Amino acid sequence: MDIKYCKEAMNFWKEIKFTKITTLSPNIKTQKFKTKNLYKILSNFFTGKFCDYGQIYYAINTALRDELVEKGEMKANEIDALCASYKVTEIHLKFFAKYFPCRILIFDSQNSQVKKYGKWKNDDNILSLVLSVLNREYSVVVDFIIWIKFFIFKIN
User: Fold this and answer.
1) Strand order of the sheet with strand 28-30?
2) pLDDT of 74 strictly over 90
3) Does residue 36 have a pLDDT over 90?
4) What is the dihedral of CA 116, 125, 129, 7, to 10 degrees?
5) For residues 60 and 92, is the Cβ–Cβ distance under 8 A?
6) Alpha carbon 6 to chain centroid, angstroms
7) What is the set of domains in the chain, with CATH numbers?
8) Distance (Å, rounded) from C-alpha 25 to C-alpha 6?
9) What pLDDT is recorded for position 150?
10) Of 3, 20, 56, 142, which is most buried with the most CB atoms under 10 A?
11) What's the whole-model pTM score?
């Protein structure tokens, strides 16, 4: 896939505040930008611009189509339907995390699920994209907010 990383993507990474990833805290802070088109976030991930999503979409889906045709596990019309839509599926996410040296974590707030894609064991230096999805809109997680409750006891 001919997707080139641009130095403008550093603006994307400057917003990320956390240094450790936790799935224990449901309290997360996300970017203000939310979209149903995950390719726009991937475009920002690589290029620092949202407008290059068409190239990202085309590159990922062309490579995915080639792999699915080669495997022969799906019918041609199923592959065409999968690779012709901007809707991102489990197949897309698994392929993306396998093809690129990255891991993806998605907090699905609507279904109270956390989904992981890519290699999560023994590699803390791998690039991680942490997302939140709510009402089918994706946003990038920029920080985890840990709530600590203090209890005050009155002693008589």
Assistant:
1) 28-30, 137-144, 127-134, 102-108, 113-117
2) yes
3) yes
4) -160
5) yes
6) 18
7) 7-144 (3.90.70.80)
8) 32
9) 39
10) 56
11) 0.73
* Tokens 């550093």, located at residue: 10
3-state secondary structure of 16: coil
- Strand 127-134 relative to strand 102-108, pairing: parallel
Joined together, the tokens standing for residue 120 give 């999560």
Measure Cα distances from 79 to 56, 71, 90, 131 in Å. Answer: 18, 11, 14, 26
Is 100 strand, coil or helix? Answer: coil
Bridge partners (DSSP) of residue 139 are 132
Instruction: Average the pLDDT over 99-124 and give the result.
Output: 80
Tokens representing 123? 């590699």
Alpha-helix residue ranges (DSSP H) falling in the chain: 10-14, 38-47, 53-71, 76-83, 90-99
pLDDT for residue 35 = 92
Helix (H, G, I), strand (E, B) or coil at 46: helix
In this structure, is the dihedral angle defined by the CA atoms of residues 110, 104, 78 and 50, taken in order, positive or negative? Answer: positive
